[in-house]
């Protein structure tokens, strides 16, 4: 599956009011702790890939993200697998000689609006953002789905520049 994602800085208080006005469905608020790893045989920073182990309120996911496919968004192939044990999965990855790149911690409020997943993220060390996500089955659907997300973002009153970098990339750039 291809995940299409756009991101911008956003004032959460104003955005929450707008989401309520638009009838968005609130799902939940979760704390996410992500550990990003680098491969022993290649540098994911150079290949534009990511391997992430996520703990989301007790649910654990291992995710591979391929190189970005779109010049305007964070669109990429994504393979996401739920795993039972965070600590054992982390140990397994380290046994395979993958090295931790960085940990990213955030609080995420999740909403659904008109077929888009809307996430209000407060990221340690970076501040407040909004991410909108949807899925595409093939590369031909990327541009129309991305344009839908951009239109939804603008309709919500977020006019700032789109940010193509991941939170990992942004935090690494601050170091």
Automatic annotation (TrEMBL):
Alphabetized SUPFAM superfamilies for the sequence: CYTH-like phosphatases
PROSITE patterns noted in UniProt: CYTH
Residues of the CYTH domain: 1-173
SMART domains: CYTH
Gene3D superfamilies in alphabetical order: Hypothetical Protein Pfu-838710-001
Superkingdom of the organism of origin: Archaea
InterPro entries per record: Adenylyl_cyclase_CyaB, CYTH-like_dom_sf, CYTH_domain
Name of this protein: Adenylate cyclase
Species annotation: Methanocella paludicola (strain DSM 17711 / JCM 13418 / NBRC 101707 / SANAE)
């Amino acid at each position: 599956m291809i995940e299409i994602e756009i991101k911008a800085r956003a004032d959460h208080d104003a955005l929450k009011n707008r989401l309520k006005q638009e009838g968005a469905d609130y799902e939940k608020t979760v704390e996410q702790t992500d550990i990003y790893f680098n491969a022993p045989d290649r540098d994911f920073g150079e290949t534009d890939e990511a391997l992430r182990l996520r703990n989301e309120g007790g649910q654990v996911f291992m995710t591979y993200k391929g190189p970005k496919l779109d010049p305007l968004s964070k669109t990429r192939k994504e393979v996401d697998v739920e795993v039972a044990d965070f600590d054992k999965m982390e140990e397994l990855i380290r046994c395979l000689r993958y090295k931790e790149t960085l940990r990213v911690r955030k609080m995420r409020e999740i909403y659904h609006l008109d077929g888009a997943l809307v996430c209000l993220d407060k990221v340690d060390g970076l501040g407040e953002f909004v991410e909108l996500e949807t899925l595409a089955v093939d590369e031909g659907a990327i541009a129309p789905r991305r344009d839908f997300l951009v239109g939804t973002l603008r309709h919500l009153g977020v006019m700032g520049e789109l940010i193509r970098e991941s939170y990992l990339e942004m935090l690494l750039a601050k170091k």
